[in-house]
Amino acid sequence: QQQMTEAQENLDAAEYEAASGGGMVKVKVSGKRELKEIIIDPQVVDPEDIEMLQDLIMAAVNEALHTAEETRQSELGKLAPGMGGMF
After folding, report:
1. Which of 43, 56, 59, 74 could form a disulfide with 25 if both were Cys (CB 3.0 to 4.6 A apart)?
2. What is the DSSP letter of 87?
3. Separation of alpha carbons 50 and 34, rounded Å
């Protein structure tokens, strides 16, 4: 039980990064699934094409959240085989 609690605390404290558009948009999320940082290369900011920027941000955020969730499931699954889907 203590190992599970420690693992959850470590996963919550972890940060995950992802990028889209060849690194033009980078994001960082926490293990608590909170957006912590967005970095946008000025070259990708085109007032005539806001939709592309929105798509790049969404892709990067979703990838970072996906990585965080996969890591969480993997780590907690090691501690509680058969219960991985419950977290």
Report:
1. 56
2. -
3. 24
Question: Model's pTM, two decimal places?
Answer: 0.78
The H or E element containing residue 5 is helix 2-13
- In the prediction, which pLDDT does 83 show? 54
Among 63, 85, 65, 64, smallest CA distance to 74 is for 85
Report CA dihedral (53, 23, 69, 12) to the nearest 10 degrees: -100
Rounded to a whole number of angstroms, the distance between the first and last alpha carbons of the chain is: 14
The residue type at 27:
V
DSSP assignment string, 29-66: EETTS-EEEEEE-GGG--TT-HHHHHHHHHHHHHHHHH
Residue with tokens 């219960």: 83
* pLDDT surpassing 70 at residue 63: yes
